[in-house]
TrEMBL record:
Organism classification: Bacteria, Pseudomonadati, Bacteroidota, Flavobacteriia, Flavobacteriales
Matches recorded under InterPro entries: Acyl_CoA_acyltransferase (IPR016181), Bact_Acetyltransf (IPR050832), GNAT_dom (IPR000182)
Gene3D superfamilies, per the entry: 3.40.630.30
Statement: the UniProt record of this protein carries the keyword Transferase: yes
UniProt-recorded name of the protein: GNAT family N-acetyltransferase
Length: 159
């Protein structure tokens, strides 16, 4: 990992980057869904104001990656790891792993026991990353996303 990369908490200065870094991968592989529009246009209202957290990866102070921790309404889960996006020009440099580890540590700091995520098997590098981070496949949540064909969970208390 290059020392010019660092992770900072979200602020309004990164609102456009949060939206564009996510729209970039969603549009490349899928289509923007209504839930995407709502969250990406209003991250403060839909994530932060509800007790969530957003991490921003910077390279020389330019946002190159984002990831959110969204309070979860599903029983047994405290948060959802969501809206992870890394700029294509920064992929393959370990930024996704850095963001994922940061988000997991933040979930622990917030007292979470279990987190989950939704993805699509088409995103093989993302699925491989989630497995490296300790997530395992599960099925018991009704997804608001048509593109979701895999759900994974991570028990933060497991050693």
């Amino acid at each position: 990992m290059d020392s010019s990369y660092r992770i900072v908490p979200y602020s309004e200065a990164y609102k456009d980057a949060f939206r564009s870094l996510n729209e970039e991968w969603i549009i490349k592989y899928f289509k923007i869904e209504e839930m995407d529009r709502i969250i990406l246009q209003n991250p403060k209202e839909y994530i932060l104001d509800k007790g969530g957290y957003i991490a921003v990866a910077l390279c020389d102070d330019v946002p190159v990656g984002v990831c959110a921790l969204i309070p979860c309404k599903y029983e047994g889960y405290d948060f959802e790891l969501s809206k992870m996006g890394v700029s294509p020009k920064a992929q393959g440099k370990g930024i996704g792993k850095l963001l994922g580890q940061h988000i997991i540590n933040q979930a622990k700091r917030l007292g979470a026991n279990k987190i989950f995520l939704e993805s699509n098997r088409k995103l093989a590098p993302a699925i491989a990353l989630y497995k490296k981070l300790g997530f395992s496949e599960m099925t018991n949540i009704a997804s608001p996303y048509a593109r979701s064909d895999i759900q994974m969970e991570l028990n933060l208390n497991a050693s």
